[in-house]
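For reproducibility, we list the full input for the uracil complex.
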Amino acid sequence: MAPSRPEDGTPEPPLWEQWAEQRRQLPTGERLQKVLAATGWGSRRVCEDLIAAGRVTVNGELAELGRRVDAEHDLIEVDGAPVGVKPGLVYYLLNKPSGVVTTAKDTHGRKTVVDLVPNEPRVFPVGRLDVETEGLLLLTNDGDLAHRITHPSHGVEKEYLVHVRGRVTPGELRRLRDGVDLDDGRTAPAAASQPSPGVLRLTIHEGRNRQVRRMCDAIGHPVLRLVRTRVGPITDRNLRPSDWRELSTAERRALTEAVADPARRYDRPT
Ligand code: URA
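The corresponding predicted structure, in tokenized form, follows.
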């Protein structure tokens, strides 16, 4: 018979469950003020003051002094702005022109997207645009975020403006929306519209090689010009071809949220 608790006579849980409970209660992770200090927010003392002043949240909840965090996975924000876990991270948005290669170094000596942004610190492109494709491309030295953006499980949306040969019929648009059969399988449902004859707005969340071009080929309308106009929440109508800029804090936050694990997404207070 299980031993009973002296106070109320209910049976005590078995010993291994008590141990597991004790383990769950052991502090894990690093102290929040230490993580904040490591990201350049000031001394630990300054960071403690930030926490005490109620300016720091972890996964959307107000943080208390002494809180421990998993610096790799928890979303830490100061005044609503996400805190990079590692200092020195940069995030650029480039309007890639046609004729530039999406690679860090081209073996044929062609101009690359990395040549268009500052060379220190070294960054790399997030995903790929074909050499002829124009439009928005992120570059960063944040490998974790880059991986999350490109990983199919996060399904980050990419929106394109596509000039195609000929006028697309409603039935063909429906095929783009429902999924077209390509040699590497059927494409996932997409958003597709034709704002003017022969110009499509197409939103996909897969990242297969030359996917938009192959989808348009499959419905009999080869691509004449392809421009990426949005990556997840990031868009910019004013960035001229070959120009770049840093992402704003709000954009970084939106991007971090777009790729957060579903269990870690939370509703922000309005
Ligand atoms: N789809 C394509 O076909 N090419 C690109 O560059 C991007 C998406």
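The domain at 91-255 is CATH 3.30.2350.10 (Pseudouridine synthase). The radius of gyration is 24 Å. Both points were considered when choosing residues for closer inspection.
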